[in-house]
Amino acid sequence: MDILWLGVFALLLIGYFALEGFDIGLGMLLPVLGRTGAERDRLVAGMAPFVLAGEVWLVAVVGVLFGAFPHLEGEVLFTLYPLVVGLLVSWVLRDAGLWFRRRLDGRAWRAFWDGVLCVGSFGLALTWGLALAALVQGGPVLTPLGVGYAALVVGVFALHGRRFAVWRLGGPGRTGRALLGSACLAAIPVAVPLAVATPWLLDHVAPPGTLGVLTLVVLPCVPVMVVAQVWVWRTFGRGAGVGAGAGAPSFF
Amino acid sequence: MDVLDLARAQFAVTGSLHFLFVVLTLGLAPLVAIMQTRHVISGKPVFERMARFWGQIYVINYALGVFTGLVMEFQFGLSWSGLSRYAGDVFGAPLAIETMVAFFLESTFLGLWIFGWHRLPRWLHLACIWLVALTAYASAFWILVANSFLQNPVAAELRGDHLVLTDFGALLTNPTLVFALPHVLGAGLFVGSFVIIGASAYHLFRRTSEWEFFVRSLRLGVVGALIGTTITVGFGYAQFGAVGLVQPGKFNGGPAVGVPLGFMILIGQLIQFAVMFGLTPLLFRDWLARWRWTHPLLMLMTPLPFLAAILGWLVREIGRQPWIVYGRLTVKDAMSPGLTPGMIVGSFVAFTGVLGLLAVVDYLLIARTVRRGPAAATLGASGRPPAPAPALIL
Q1: Cα–Cα distance between A106 and A103 in angstroms, integer?
Q2: Of A86, A248, B175, B300, which has fewest CB within 10 angstroms of its CB?
Q3: If pLDDT is split at 50, 70 and 90, which confidence band does B392 have?
Q4: Is residue B381 part of a domain?
């Protein structure tokens, strides 16, 4: 059961990097790929249906951390205090940019929230890089290695976001395989520290009584979770176009 | 204020903000689902327009529920790591289940619902909003399971320096849970219905062109409010017995508990009477919609259920002080060791500054959406010429 919940934790965290990585990357690249307001609308419309289904993976990661590794939850989050605060503020700002940008019609309003979206996305990538490096080193939150690692995360997320934009909205090199490749690349910065931390995680797993309850309640719902996620990709994937004439999605 | 006070204030502010938004989410989700169901069954366009307009308000409101909820989830580890060290083996399980089984599905289905208008087959699209409502209720259930454990730590025993889970069934039948859950769900319906009543009254008072739309909305709102207030007030009083047994003296804690409790009961009781003996009988021949002088009163009543909901939470949480896990662990001992004034002030300013500003923006956007009326709703707008939508395969 220990291995099962370690696997769930790892799957959710890796899934978050692979599935939210492109949203964050596209958010960072928004001013570059979308020079005009209309272009940015199209890019955001491309990613919007995936954001809600993507960010829930991280909410679940922290839930599993609390449920299956309760003694690590406080330790990890507290050790990384300033980075966690930065990550949360970035996350909230990125989401606010998405939710609010089309609520009013003015160009200044939309440009402002596009800026917030971009800054929040950068903040997410940078704080993730710094946090992972700090966890592996077991040390201070700001180190040269951490800065390098943060740059690496920014890089792979940007690449992943770029590939997603091409896959969803059209362009040269538009294959699902390319997107899968960048998803794997985006997951590497978290998969490696996870592999290193495996013995440490297994040392801190919750007692069998707690894990039994979690398994009993969560396991029957896993098929529904899988179906819901697959449904999102089937519905809004390539072909369910956002191009001219297809109509812009109704929100975000 | 010392570090402990600041950490408590931070949790109270983010928690209150969170509840202001989720209580409306809880109330509007089933009401929007009912509107859409009536459209799918009857085929009448007015019900689709209602689902889109009130759904748009639901969605704008949902955003802030998520933002504040994220901060709440992480705050346990940031400020209160002593809680997870002492009680994490018990308290962590319902929170983990809430995130995976409830919120994960709620958000995924909500995304499908928002972007699935005119794309999904209409019955599947309808199923999405019902699943959103169902998982929102499941969220409330598991969060209240966790909170009730803090109020009355059943199902656990002390081993060494921490609690372990011994009886999961007892966690789910906690007496501080079984009356509080319907009380909170009823409060959601109460709040959601009054937002619909207040906004409908605004349009009816202004004599906008949407007479039928807002008369129907007003009717649904009053019926929802009748059910919501009855459940809320009934289970509110019913709680006293159970709470008195496991938390004796909870309501004698001085003015910090007594004042909000008294004020909440006053609001709840007065509005319940107003709904039962005023609003509901006036649905006869749509007198409520026709009597224009009642509409400003209805608009003025709209914020009161929100206020009562926050006061209720304050009573529940202040009443367990100084304990974080009642009778077992104090709030002071649960605070993260090593938390410095600089850290807590920094995060307090960051969280409350950002969330407070966004909450204000969100309410202004909701007010503007209400004012502009159903014709301006963009949620579910087809955005394409009225040609048959391409068939989509699941």
Answers
A1: 9
A2: B300
A3: very low
A4: no
Taking each continuous run of H as one helix and of E as one strand, the counts in chain B are 15, 4
Taking 50 as the pLDDT cut, the residues of chain A under it are 243-248, 250
| The pair of three-digit structure tokens given for residue B283, joined into one six-digit string | 């649905």
Q: Where are the domains of chain A?
A: 2-210+217-236
Q: In terms of CA atoms, which chain A residue is nearest residue B334? A: A74
Q: Tens of pLDDT along B126-136?
A: 999 999 999 99
- ipTM value for the complex: 0.94
For residue A138, what are its two tokens? 């077991």
Structure-token match 């199923």, residue found: B127
Nearest to A153 by CA among A53, A18, A9: A18
Q: What whole-number percentage of chain B has pLDDT above 70?
A: 97
Distance CA B328, CA B273 (A): 40
Q: Which amino acid belongs to residue A245?
A: G
Rounded to whole angstroms, the Cα distance separating B34 from B217 reads 11
* Residues of the domain holding B366: 3-376
Residue B28 lies in a domain: yes
Cα separation, A123 vs A140, whole angstroms: 18
| CB spacing of B92 vs A210 below 8 angstroms | yes
Length of chain A: 252
Amino acid at B84: S
Binding-face residues of B in 16-35 toward A, CB within 8 A: none
Crossing angle for the helix pair B180-205 and B45-79, to the nearest 10 degrees? 130
Of B118, B97, B106, B124, residue with least CA distance to B58: B106
Q: Hey, is the C-beta of B93 within 8 angstroms of any chain A C-beta?
A: yes
Nearest CA in chain B to A51: B111
Let me know how long chain B is: 394
Structure tokens given for B231: 């459940």
Task: Map residue B281 onto helix, strand or coil.
Answer: helix
φ, ψ of residue A242 in degrees (nearest 5): -120, 15
Q: Tell me B325's DSSP state.
A: E
Quick check: B96 and A75 CB within 8 A? Answer: no
Nearest to B107 by CA among A78, A249, A49: A49
Could A59 and B355 be called an inter-chain contact, meaning their C-beta atoms sit closer than 8 Å?
no
Residue B207 lies in a domain: yes
Measured in whole angstroms, the distance separating CA B31 from the mean position of its chain's CA atoms is 13
User: B383: pLDDT confidence band, cut at 50, 70 and 90?
Assistant: low
Name the residue facing B108 among A209, A218, A229 (closest C-beta): A229
CA distance A230 to B99: 19
Inside any domain, residue B392: no
Residue B350: exposure state from Cβ atoms within 10 A (0-12, 13-18, ≥19): middle
Rg, Å, chain B Cα set: 22
Measured between CA atoms, how close is A151 to chain B, in angstroms?
24
Q: Which two tokens stand for residue A141?
A: 């939150």
